[in-house]
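To assess whether the prediction recovers the assembly geometry, we first specified each molecular entity separately, as shown.
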Amino acid sequence: MKITELTGIQFDTEDKGTALIVVGSVERHGDHLPLGTDGIIPKYIVEKVAAELNLLVLPPIWYGSCKSMRNFPGTFDIDPDALSKYVRSVMLEANRNGVRLLVVINGHGGNSVPISMAARDISSKTDLSIIVLDWWKELGTGVAGTFSAPGHAGEDETSAMLAINEESVKMKYAKMHDAVFPKFRFYSRALDLKLYGIALTGDARKATKEKGEVLLKAVVQDLVKLIKEAQGLIKF
Ligand SMILES: [Zn+2]
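The predicted structure of the complete assembly is given in tokenized form:
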């Protein structure tokens, strides 16, 4: 159930032990995908899983830290420290309202560090346990290998979006942009400009609705399993 749709009386009696939250981005995704893609995909995943396990869903934090894509129109690049602090606050308030396991489904690479820093901090100071997942890297890995390469607005993200809302994807603008990332952590504006030349990495033209459906099904199954495992580990 979505917390925003519960009345006060309903909230009082609901099981609030485990809650899910999305962190996304408002960011250019080539010319063919919605700017909200990084929130839309995790929101779909979270709602499916919450329905299956009867869990609480908190509203998404849609703005993210988007340094690599900040030069493209449509990108809102939030300061990572501000994001991390905001996420910390939301975590604290979730805990104060009865949540003991918070599952954060992240849809955007630039958010990973700010969220993880918040999770380390809050979990050490409260009884809130926190799972942080980059959905495209850590869920549905069994089928992720069938895609040419995981990419920003590439085959995997585009396929997932086709499966969620076909009309929102403009396939006639889908392109290919081969980007080879270094195997080490390299922070460089020069490299970002080169790698993200058209706000896309990978081959979006290969995306299909069917591939997206297979991917999302696997992602949802993995997340259900993982949450059950986490609940067992902290036993409440
Ligand atoms: Zn994305």
